[in-house]
Specification:
The complex is a heterotetramer of chains A (315), B (161), C (288) and D (349).
Chain A (H helix, E strand, L loop, with lengths): L5 H12 L5 E10 L2 E7 L8 E2 L20 E5 L1 H12 L8 E6 L7 H7 L11 E3 L2 E4 L2 E4 H4 L2 H4 L11 E3 L13 H7 L3 H12 L7 H5 L24 H14 L9 H5 L7 H15 L27
Parallel strand pairs in A: 1-4, 4-5, 5-9
Antiparallel strand pairs in A: 1-2, 1-3, 6-7, 7-8
Chain C lengths: L2 H8 L6 E10 L6 E8 L2 H6 L7 E6 L3 E6 L10 E6 L3 H7 L6 E8 L5 H4 L3 E7 L4 H12 L9 E7 L8 H9 L4 E6 L9 E2 L2 H8 L6 E6 L2 H13 L7 E4 L15 E2 L2 E2 L6 E3 H5 L6
Parallel strand pairs in C: 7-8, 7-11, 8-9, 9-10, 11-12
Antiparallel strand pairs in C: 1-2, 1-6, 2-5, 3-4, 3-6, 12-15, 13-14
Helix pairs in contact in C: 7-8
Chain D lengths: L2 E5 L3 H11 L1 E7 L4 E5 L18 H4 L3 E8 L9 E2 L7 E6 L1 H15 L6 H8 L1 E6 L25 E6 L2 E6 L2 H8 L4 E2 L2 H17 L9 H4 L8 H6 L7 H5 L6 E8 L2 E8 L20 H20 L9 H5 L6 H19 L1
Parallel strand pairs in D: 2-6, 6-7, 7-8
Antiparallel strand pairs in D: 1-9, 1-10, 2-3, 4-5, 4-12, 8-9, 11-12
Classes of the chains: A alpha/beta (315), B alpha/beta (161), C alpha/beta (288), D alpha+beta (349).
Chain lengths: 315, 161, 288, 349
Amino acid sequence: MSSLPTEIQQQIADWLSTGEIDLFIGWEQGSVPLGATPAFVRDPQDVSRLIWDATCENNLTAYLAKFKGQKVGIMVKGCDARAIIGLMQEGQWTRENLRIVGVSCPGVVDARKVASALGITLEELDQAEIVDDTVVVGDQSFALADTIHDMCQTCNRRNPNIEDVHLGETLPETPVDDPFGHVGEMEALSSDERWARFQAETSRCNLCFACRNACPLCYCTVCFADRTQPQWLTTTSEAEDVQFFQIMRTFHLAGRCVGCGACTRACPQGVNLRLFLDKLRLDAQEVFGYTAGVDPEAQPPLRTYRQDDPNDTFL
Amino acid sequence: MLNDRMMAPPKDLPAIWEPKIVAFLCNWCSYAGADLAGTSRIQYPPNIRVIRVPCSGRVNPIFVVEALRQGADGVLVSGCHPGDCHYISGNYYARRRFTMLKRYLEYLGIEPGRVQFSWVSASEGGRFAEVVTKVTRDVRALGPARRLSINKVNASETDQA
Amino acid sequence: MSAQEVAGMANNPYLPMSMEILRIEDETADRTLKTLDLRWIHEEQAAAFSYHTGQFCELSVLGVGEAPFGIATSPVEEGFIRFTINRAGVVTQKLHSLKAGDVIGMRGPLGNWYPTELMRGKDIVIIGGGFAFTTLRSLIYTLLEGGERDAYGKITVVYGTRAPGLMLYRPDLTAWQDRSDIDMHQTIDREAPNWPHHVGFVPTVVEEVAPSSDNSIAVIAGPPVMIRFTLPVMTKLGFAKEQIYTSLENRMKCGIGKCGRCNVGNKYVCLDGPVFSLAELDELPPEY
Amino acid sequence: MKQWLLPKSSLPKLADTIRQTHRLYAPVRLPDQVAFGEIGEGDPFTLDYANARTSVKTLFFPQAETMLRYERSLDRYNDISATPVDSVPTVVLGMRPCDARGLELLDRVFGQGQYHDPYYLARRQATVVVALACAAPRQTCFCHAVGGDPYSGDGGDVLLSESDEAYVAVAQTTKGQEWLASLGLSEADAGHLATAETIAEAAHEKLVKMAPAAGLEDKLTALFESEVWGEIAEKCIACGTCTYLCPGCHCFNIQDRVLANGGIRLRSWDGCMYEGFTVHTSGHNPRPDQGARWRQRVLHKFAYLPENVGMYGCVGCGRCITYCPVRLDIREVIARLRIETAAQLQGEQ
């Protein structure tokens, strides 16, 4: 755990005390191993609670929907920053109402990977801490780089592309060989095998909606899953309901998903949602040459069209 | 399984499986095309169940997936040719949307051919019959839809071997 | 259905009885309310069914769902049971589309009831507004036709709606208006042609009528805004919180205190209610 | 009460014996979790585990079950009929005392009062619950603060306690007594009992210190209008994972599903964390924000259930702490409320 540098603390405190922002959303120390927790700071004196380290996994921009109309300061990693651009593109937020502390992120730690490396379950991981570049559990230690989330291992945008102040050093953007390798592997399977994979992955889902609620771009006032007229979904954990929900929720992010991975990290059952969402991101790139969360002025691909768009889907 | 006892084939359904295909047809082109096929007495398979929509752009992807969920063996969405949309641009949006959807559903393991899209104008009665014939043939070849369906009724016992 | 099966059903509180719609008609001029008279399909269930005035049932349309409705008939009316349904959600929309002869499901009776035992020997004031009059009709009918009219003192009724066409159960109202053993006051919000009764909001009319709070019990049911403005009037008339009863609504599913959503504090509206005295509500948080 | 000895090495044989007469569920170690699964011949299971991710309540009160069904025919109306209850004789082996206490709570909710839930109670009555005392409480465990104990036998028919290479088995109910007596075990000797005693003492030493919740139940309702709920709920993303993993949560929804030749009425878990849980058809919601929903969660568990059925709705298993996507810790909430209630009392004086 590390508190924020004094100058950043001072900056946030200044924003708060001058009324430039109503609140600041950051992370603070949590009560479980390797888990920071979101912090909402309104009193300038509380800025000392804020921390930044590899346990700060939540994408805090998911909270922005709660504070529409207010002026908000927020801490973002490279991936989180893309969500802000997505929200701006869709008219959810304007730049003036945000004060952004950007932080370059080498990847956030996956406590399940640590537990798994120890041959135990998450419940059994009683203590663990990050010391420099290692995760230390009792007398064992693991390289942090080996225990970061999968989506962090293929991240090629570690530095926020929108920010007011930057915390710490900027990291080199190392090109990743094949950021969509996992999608390619699934594409290479037969139709039956892909269905089996989809079934296996979604079979763990118990429809708690953590993925939706952790997603900064899932801001619909009433989600289709919650509608009663018509009621699309019976809210059970049965395969038919879970698959239906997952297909529709993920497809609603087609061309919008910025690939922050917040849904995948939030899932209590460890469903690899990224395997599905990344297909949509890849297709947006391949078919429409579009990458979400990069250009605040660009239109998401399904909100616009060209007369000479590919026509090969249609008979 | 919540629905298990319901999966026995109902007594009043035919023992031989016939594909059920839900077709979302735009009011201005494809629906009129279907009409023309009818009035011109052009033969096409009776397997489609038509849902008339104002525009292919009106078709929410959830309609397509819901049709499969409710037990359709195939889904066809058809609208005006690009450039001919009664609402100027509805089918252009539809084209992007369904290009993404088709790729996505196939990625998740929905068999290619289960969900198809076409452009059929009001004057193309013959073409409408061809499209329906092709879609029906494709879906028949795939057999009853099991994936996503809460109604695997006609898929279990009456499955064609 | 064998007697054994009927007994078995009594042990499954989620299983509805099959009810045939005898009559379904628009109740009000704006066609947002329909009244359904239902009859049991299975005689044994009809025989086993007994209820109190103020209770409710869950009506269900298979494939659509269930929703709770107060019983508008009185236990002394035999052979059928009546509900008046406001078209609002999916279940009520479907119920509105049904016709005589259709079959729906019914579970109940559920919940508690108006304190008719407590009302013995007392004057009774019944105040209703809009379509919340359903269980009040049941109460009035029970008091008048239960064969024990003498057991109760003076009965005063104030019933108001926005317009004449929105009054429920007009034949009943007309009959009661002409009776001498009930002091009936109908009111509408604004003047309307050929309206012989009061004009004005319910609280105002209650103040005019000024029923005595002495040895009285009052029952109030209506939209929240009517209740809010009527209560101060009742206080002015000297009614204590223990003398005033009302009927609550909350979103319900099971109707039997298990599914955990209709609670107000630690009380379940479906099980401990829907009828509460104001004194009881005072002890509970404002969660309805 | 007799104390039997169950050598760990005899567990596979015991499983075979049980399966002669009962359906058997036991903890199974999966790649990233432990889950209760049905044990067939030779299937591996383990009693050496912290806790299952999904509470054992799911075996008695599954996330979704068909309650009623009807069949449609074209010419006549069919009565809706109830799904037969599941009363297959069953043994659930090795659930933690917190989960067993969760069942005790569900017994009261579904089995007390005027109405009884036939689906839950049938499974419950047909099942022998063999609880396994916690020799190694975890960092997130707080059963001892909510009226439980790592060695509590509440809700169980039998309690197993660790004694090196064996378990000491003690019946908690007549059902458990009869079942144990049928297994042909030998009685535990003084040595094993002493070892078990030592391990139990060590287990209690390991408990993370936490002030008991006792006393809170009478004071919480005074905080109903407090702003503290909004502050507690601020980071909550309303996912409901806490309610789904909780052994004590029992709220459910009832929904209809139309099928081609009939339909079903099913019930599925629901939760107070969801906005739609209490919203009226009119759009009015008596619990309009996440603060109000958290208030319901806390008051239901720590005030209403104690008053209505005599025990907390929280058994201290810690699942909601481990799996909360934003790590909103119920222990910290309790601690915060303790301070708030004290402040409230002082303010009144």
